[in-house]
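Dear U.,

Please find below the material for section 3 of the report. The protein was modelled together with flavin-adenine dinucleotide; I have listed the sequence and SMILES used, followed by the predicted complex structure.
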Amino acid sequence: MKQKKIAIIGAGITGLVTAYYLKKADIPFRIFEKSGHIGGVIETRQENGFVYERGPNSGVLANVETVEFFEDLGSRCKPEIADASSAKRLIWKGGMWHSLPSGIAGGITTPLFSMKDKLRLLGEPFRKKGTDPNETLSHLVIRRMGQSFLDYAIDPFILGIYAGDPAYIVPKYALPKLYQLEQNYGSFIGGAIKKKREKKEPSEKKVSRDIFSIEGGLQRLTETLSEIVGKENIELECSGLSVKKSAQGFQVYYKEKQEDFYQVVSTIIAGELPKLFPFVENRMWEPVSRLKYAKVTEVAIGFKKWNGIPLDAFGGLIPFKENRNLLGVLFMSSLFKDRAPKGGALLTTFVGGMRKAELTDLGEDALFQLIKNELEITMGIKNNDPDLFQYSTHQHAIAQYGADSEARYSAIAAIELQHNGLYLGGSIRDGIGIADRIKQARLMAERIIKEA
Ligand SMILES: Cc1cc2nc3c(=O)[nH]c(=O)nc-3n(C[C@H](O)[C@H](O)[C@H](O)COP(=O)(O)OP(=O)(O)OC[C@H]3O[C@@H](n4cnc5c(N)ncnc54)[C@H](O)[C@@H]3O)c2cc1C
């Protein structure tokens, strides 16, 4: 082939960022998208004075690649950093919200953790490090910190990020920074202190815990990217797509047409891979296809006049132990500008997840009643009907990195090795957040550019 053209499957953030870097390197590509929408799960809507998300609500500037990506985009699309109140996180316990403590003083006085575990925490730096790479998160936290830290800090955090179960999640894959803290420094507390003191590269200094969206919603980012990479390079409504091997590389079959490519990048969910790439032996897909996903219903709920509790935090998370029907509530109108009419509020709530998936099958009326009841109790809303109620259910919302991850990573590596030029990306590996996707996309693009 004269032109080494790349096929990208999926027009979500991973596919778009990969295309962005290929475009910068003058490498021709074409994006194939099953749906009629660019952006994947990222989708922002406006209604009745509210601006709400139907997928992710925010990202974190958690790695160098994400920071540099926004630097590179410059004025074309600037991140909007969440209000400073986002540093405060609320946890529900015993019928009220408590701030998750960040310092030692707060840690001692908080009612979230038991006295026994607070005292046990003093010994955390001296506990032996784990030796099982497949140890679950709950096991790791109980071993190092105690049951109440698992129940009232880690469990709600995992519900908030993974809609998951800490007894299933394996930190080595799901929370690699936490895993490395214990493995490299022998302790979470000691490791965090030592890491803070270590000399950092200038690029690493830019990384923060800052939470971002984009003014007007995250879809502005995917819209900007689609304009930069060129809408003419994105083929929408390509359901039934299939890829075959050819002498030059790969052939993509779509809409009764076929096109030759040098390399192929996939960004889709695990279960669809065997159908897309029938030339890969089924037994090789087996460990990949096994990947589980949390099913989640996301509800945007808006009030033109807010009469509930003060919304001076990122949001509230509800530990599974508290036996409520919400996973958490994000205070979106406090975090970002112009998400609700003045004096009003926009909340995003989530139901379902790995341990309460049945709640995602409630009909609209039952879901509305459930959300209303839960918010009356947890948010102190009085006699107030919402002015916005919109929901979206995601069958494969968040990949769950469990003890099967090692086998999945090995299978992905083996498939890529056997089929040179095939790149398997997306949330099947490397993390589930927007920042993880941006980092993975850039690294995949760099591998492709090197080989071009
Ligand atoms: C409800 C929800 C809330 C979230 N909240 C957050 C959050 O607050 N912060 C955060 O950092 N992350 C969050 N995430 C995760 C984050 O949104 C994702 O990691 C990221 O957006 C995924 O991007 P992607 O491009 O890898 O996948 P996707 O966005 O899923 O894009 C993949 C694309 O591939 C297409 N496709 C699938 N199969 C085929 C096929 N066979 N042929 C062609 N095209 C195909 C799909 O239609 C889709 O457009 C959330 C996710 C969900 C679902």
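For the text of the report, you could mention the following: The mean pLDDT is 95.

Regards,
Y.
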